Amino acid sequence: MTIQQNFSLKSYNTFGIEATAKFFVEIQSVEELRHILQNSDYQSIDKLFLGGGSNILLTKNYEGLVVKINLKGIKKIFENDSYSYIQAGAGEIWHELVMYCVENQYAGMENLSLIPGTVGAAPMQNIGAYGVEIKDIFEELQALNLETLEIETFKVNDCHFGYRESVFKHQFKGKYVITSVTFKLNKIPDYKVAYGDIQKTLEEMNIFELSIKTISDAVVSIRKSKLPDPAEIGNSGSFFKNPEISKVQYEEIKTKFEHIPSYPINETTVKVPAGWLIEQAGWKGFRDGEIGVHTRQALVLVNYGGGTGEQIKGLSVKIQASVLEKFGISLSTEVNFI
Q1: Which structural domain range is residue 61 located in?
Q2: What is the number of structural domains in the chain?
Q3: If you average pLDDT over residues 55-82, what whole number do you get?
Q4: Please, are residues 223 and 114 in contact by the beta-carbon 8 Å criterion?
């Protein structure tokens, strides 16, 4: 375990932003994590715990210690007639875990294929796609208490999962580091193909027999067609959350914009696609120098190379103001500004 100084974070964030960490260390075990937290040289400085860097926007150099979480390992810890319980280290790449489960016929994750990031970040955001969220397959997680340095276990009700939300983004923010996550996966698949273009894509791929793999393949195809590869164009995937508004507000907006799409949440609330709102406000394909809005998906802000975090943040503020003015809807960001 080596602590480096003035370390470039460009390859550690999917936006490809050039920023440096005053101090940087990669940890491979909980013991190493405890060791660095007990080091008197670094106890009083700010710390940023980094996973895959897919949900952050670096707006400046980080003047504290960046700790890259590389906790690895995937294993089945228990099974019964209905479920297999799979535990993964927080540093595992999310999509690689999904592929492991697909290959081993553990059902439930297939709709979450090709989402960027690491396992440890997944419950923090309650990541979701195509009708499935982490909370639907979550059993428990282990996290290191940064004050006591003890491992604590959190069950699903402890995490207070919401839409791209969890307790770790609010009252427990900065108080814990997730070290592993255990998932409860079906032995008998419950295929979910009604959301988005999954069924249509399966038909286009001439796939008429459902399986965990065929659904995963369809999701991968959809995501590749709509979302840019961070290895080619810097981005963090969806930059904004899909806003949830009252049905009353939705009906009022619909009198002016009759084609506005929506998805029911409950009897009084609907979700509106943020990408549609942004596109209707005229931002799709917008480019300002080295930053912009993706040409195929308005929900994605991009760094074409050489853009700064402050520039992307400034663009996001302009988009939020534009959507609010046109529709009266406030957009919240999924991305965390550092």
Answers
A1: 4-69
A2: 3
A3: 94
A4: yes
Q: How far is CA 155 from CA 137, 200, 253, in A?
A: 12, 36, 39
Instruction: Give the list of residues 6+ apart from residue 141 with CB closer than 8 angstroms, or none.
Output: 123, 153, 154, 159, 178, 180, 181, 182
Catalytic residues: 164, 238, 334
Domain of residue 86, CATH code: 3.30.465.10
Please indicate, yes or no, whether residues 169 and 266 belong to a single structural domain of this protein.
no
Element (DSSP H or E) covering residue 245: strand 244-246
The enclosing domain of 239 has a CATH number of 3.90.78.10
Q: Are residues 13 and 93 in the same domain?
A: no
What's the pLDDT at 292? 96
Judgement on whether residues 114 and 141 belong to the same structural domain of the protein: yes
> How many angstroms separate the CA atoms of 288 and 275, rounded?
19
Radius of gyration of the chain (CA): 20
**Per-residue pLDDT tens for 276-316?**
999 999 999 999 999 999 998 999 999 998 899 999 999 99
DSSP 170: T
Q: Are residues 260 and 275 located together in one domain of the fold?
A: yes
Asked whether residue 124 falls in the same domain as residue 216, the answer is yes
Judged by DSSP in three states, 317 sits in helix
Q: How many residues does the chain have?
A: 338
How buried is 9 (Cβ within 10 angstroms: 0-12 exposed, 13-18 middle, 19+ buried)?
A: buried
Residue carrying the six token digits 């690491």:
118
Query: What does pTM read for this prediction?
Result: 0.85
